[in-house]
Amino acid sequence: MDIKTLVKLTSRAWSLNILAVLHSGVAGRQAALLSATGASRSSFSLSLEHLVGLKLLERNPGHGHPLRPEFRLTPLGVEAAEIASRLVKAVPDEGEFSLLRKSWTVPILALTSAPRRFSGIRCDLAPITDRALSASLYKLEEFDWIQREIDVSARVPFPTYCAANRGIEINQAIGLNA
């Protein structure tokens, strides 16, 4: 999976949960998925539509009621569901997982296996604003998932960011070859 697909995938809060639940073998009916994820109906519905739009899920033809369809993973969705399942296992604590549901957390951690400058991360996550990136990095640093160090080897010192602790586990669970 490339970084652009990862950004699109994580732009909805419950996408990772839905994919992980489907990967674990829960039936693709909306009621079962909704119950297993613990999402609100509106957030769940938006995330489900988002996954169908990304062609990671499709309606299971011949199954389910027209108003309550059944969904299944597409071949692309199977790969994404494996990654989502690894992420859910890497962060079992619900309090920490709420940070993982934020839209930029997973892409930032995917890019920071090695020390990266702010501008390098921003370039790879093209639609992100400086404010969103700064706030995300600050929150990740607060949870100790990112380590910020000042590189003084250049004429003008600058900070670098690198995944640390749980952030490294998440980075490895993503397995992105950036």
UniProtKB/TrEMBL annotation:
The keyword Transcription applies. Gene3D superfamilies: Winged helix-like DNA-binding domain superfamily/Winged helix DNA-binding domain. It comes from the Bacteria. Keywords: DNA-binding, Transcription, Transcription regulation. GO terms for molecular function: DNA binding. Residues 100-173 form the HTH hxlR-type domain. This is Transcriptional regulator, HxlR family. The lineage of its organism: Bacteria, Pseudomonadati, Pseudomonadota, Alphaproteobacteria, Hyphomicrobiales.
